[in-house]
Each structure stands twice: as structure tokens, then as C-alpha cells.
């Protein structure tokens, strides 16, 4: 395990690092998750193994620190990741990012372009989502609580909705971190993650479950050079539900074969 201080108050991001060749690959998890449980099998899969790989936990989640004096906006998350990558000596990385991690990765690539050479988004958030208490789980449901409500007991209701699999990593998150990250993810970035993605001058691939409804704006994404790839037999956690197809599609994308 490695770590880097990423805030002036001393908070540290931590990551699991697998040795290998350059370019480095950086894996970023989604809301309430952790890169180790979600991406280790992918990083060592025969289709993807052999590269230096950083399975990084965003500030507030997993094995990273959980400061309460941090805002947890997408921009702050991206800047914290950038500080960790600088400490690790990473440049021009291939970034594979799931869900909220994908939103952070888009902002990272826009704000720190020297750090990201290729981007594989795994069912990532591209657009703002209105907060909705009726949402079963996810950022919009968490964001429907005020921070005071969430800390006072709303987190227990979220725990009961998300189920034991997601809760196994969500319980590691700082509660302020979880709530603030959800609020800012639901609000999105300015410009939106989608608009930032369209303008990035790097190879970009978006992996999505084949069973989902049509991806909004897919034609415009394609027109701007974003390769949209549907993966069969999976839900939102593509890398866990269909690891073989995920590894194959990710490797294909990173080879630049579109």
C-alpha cells in the first residue's frame, strides 16, 4: 500500500500498486466503493495484466483518509487524485473509472490533462441527477437528505436500501464524505461531465450494460469520438458481473482499436 498527502490539513489518499510496465493504469471506484474489491481481478486479468496499476481510493472512501474539512466536490476529488498521482510520479495514465469515479476522471482529465492519456468510463455519471428520496439507492437518494438528516440517521435508511454487497464498502466511507460526494455528483460539474467529455482530445471509451435503455446522447458522443460499447450479461458493476467481457473490452479500448 502506498499513500500521498493531498490536502493542506494532512489528509492522505492511499492506493494498492501493482508493478508493471508503463504507461501506468489508474483505477477509480464509484460512490461508496473501493478500488481494491472492485478492480483487483480486472487489473490482474490476462487481458489487462502487466502494466503498473494503481487501485486508488478517493479521499473519504476505502483505505483513504476521511477528512470532515473537505468539500468533496468533483473538482476537489479530481485535484486530490492529481496530487496523489504527482506524488506517485504518474503522467499520461490510462484511467479506468467506474460510476462516480468516471465523473471524477472526466474532471481530472479536463483540469490536469498531462495526467490522463486514455479514458475508459464504466457506466459513469455524465449528467446531473435530481435528488429523490424515493430513489432506491445511489447518489440521488443520498443527496435527498440534508447533511444533518443524513448524519442523524438517514445513513441507516440508505444502508438498508443498498443491500449487503454495496454496504460492505460503503460502510468504510466517512459519512460526511459519502453525503457530500453524493450531493456534488447529483449536481454535476460546470460544464457538465458530458460536455467536458465531448471536448477531451484523448481516446475515450464508454462501457455500458447492453440491457440498459439506450444511452442518452449516444450519437453526439460518437460524433465527438467517444466509443460507446455495450457489454452483455451485466448490470451497473460491469467488471464484477461479466469480468471476461469487461477485461476484453477495456483492453481493446486501451490498445486504441476503435
TrEMBL record:
<dbReference type="InterPro" id="IPR000073">
    <property type="entry name" value="AB_hydrolase_1"/>
</dbReference>
<dbReference type="InterPro" id="IPR029058">
    <property type="entry name" value="AB_hydrolase_fold"/>
</dbReference>
<dbReference type="GO" id="GO:0016787">
    <property type="term" value="F:hydrolase activity"/>
</dbReference>
<feature type="domain" description="AB hydrolase-1">
    <location>
        <begin position="26"/>
        <end position="136"/>
    </location>
</feature>
<dbReference type="Pfam" id="PF00561">
    <property type="entry name" value="Abhydrolase_1"/>
</dbReference>
<keyword id="KW-0378">Hydrolase</keyword>
<dbReference type="InterPro" id="IPR050228">
    <property type="entry name" value="Carboxylesterase_BioH"/>
</dbReference>
<protein>
    <submittedName>
        <fullName>Alpha/beta hydrolase</fullName>
    </submittedName>
</protein>
Amino acid at each position: 500500500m502506498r499513500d500521498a498527502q493531498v490536502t493542506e490539513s494532512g489528509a492522505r489518499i492511499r492506493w494498492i500498486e501493482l508493478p508493471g510496465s508503463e504507461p501506468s493504469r489508474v483505477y477509480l471506484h464509484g460512490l461508496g466503493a473501493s478500488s481494491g474489491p472492485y478492480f483487483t481481478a480486472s487489473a490482474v486479468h490476462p487481458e489487462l495484466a502487466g502494466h503498473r496499476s494503481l487501485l486508488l481510493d478517493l479521499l473519504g472512501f476505502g483505505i483513504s483518509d476521511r477528512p470532515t474539512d473537505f468539500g468533496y466536490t468533483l473538482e476537489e476529488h479530481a485535484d486530490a487524485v492529481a496530487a496523489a498521482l504527482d506524488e506517485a510520479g504518474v503522467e499520461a495514465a490510462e484511467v479506468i473509472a467506474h460510476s462516480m469515479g468516471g465523473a471524477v476522471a472526466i474532471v481530472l482529465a479536463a483540469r490536469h490533462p498531462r495526467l490522463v492519456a486514455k479514458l475508459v468510463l464504466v457506466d459513469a455519471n455524465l449528467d446531473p441527477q435530481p435528488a429523490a428520496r424515493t430513489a432506491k439507492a445511489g447518489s440521488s437518494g443520498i443527496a435527498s437528505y440534508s447533511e444533518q438528516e443524513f448524519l442523524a440517521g438517514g445513513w441507516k435508511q440508505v444502508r438498508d436500501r443498498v443491500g449487503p454487497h454495496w454496504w460492505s464498502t460503503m460502510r468504510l466511507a466517512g459519512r460526511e464524505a459519502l453525503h457530500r460526494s453524493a450531493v456534488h455528483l447529483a449536481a454535476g460539474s460546470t460544464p457538465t461531465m458530458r460536455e467536458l467529455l465531448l471536448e477531451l482530445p484523448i481516446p475515450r471509451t464508454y462501457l455500458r450494460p447492453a440491457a440498459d435503455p439506450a444511452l442518452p446522447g449516444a450519437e453526439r458522443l460518437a460524433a465527438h469520438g467517444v466509443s460507446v460499447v455495450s457489454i452483455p450479461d451485466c448490470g451497473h458493476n460491469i467488471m464484477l458481473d461479466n469480468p471476461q467481457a469487461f477485461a476484453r473490452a477495456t483492453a481493446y479500448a486501451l490498445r486504441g482499436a476503435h
